[in-house]
What we know:
There is one protein chain. By secondary structure, the protein is mainly beta. The protein has one helix at residues 15-22, and strands at 26-31, 36-38, 54-58, 62-67, 86-91, 96-100, 114-122, 127-134. The protein is built from 1 helix and 8 strands. A hairpin with a 4-residue loop joins strand 7 and strand 8.
Amino acid sequence: MAEPMPVPEPTPVSQPFWDALAQHRIxxxxxxxxxxxxxxxxxxxxGTLADDLEWREIDGAATLYxxxxxxxxxxxxxxxxLPQLPAVVQWDVGPRFSxxxxxxxxxxxxxxxxxxxxxxxxxxxxxxxxxxxPADA
Length: 137
């Protein structure tokens, strides 16, 4: 049997992101001074170092940027979850997001394919993870 899955540990800066996921919504920071969305959550805008970051809701629509098919566990907690499909998607609003692909056969994955968000509630933890599946699924 595999070890328990690790659970994210929100920080004061990232808490709004995790709270939104628990509500099956996606909040991402936006910097008016930089004129763009930014991810990972932070206190100052990249490039301008302005303290103008604000949380905005996005729909999570994205394009698959890269992925891998892990046929061996990436760590003990994933021993029973093979193949694992770690991926990076690029949100339509700009930033890239590290995730995992679900509900897809590895042979059907293509770089550049459209993907849609899937909210995965972790039982007994109060946490929700953001995964992605093919948009046409």
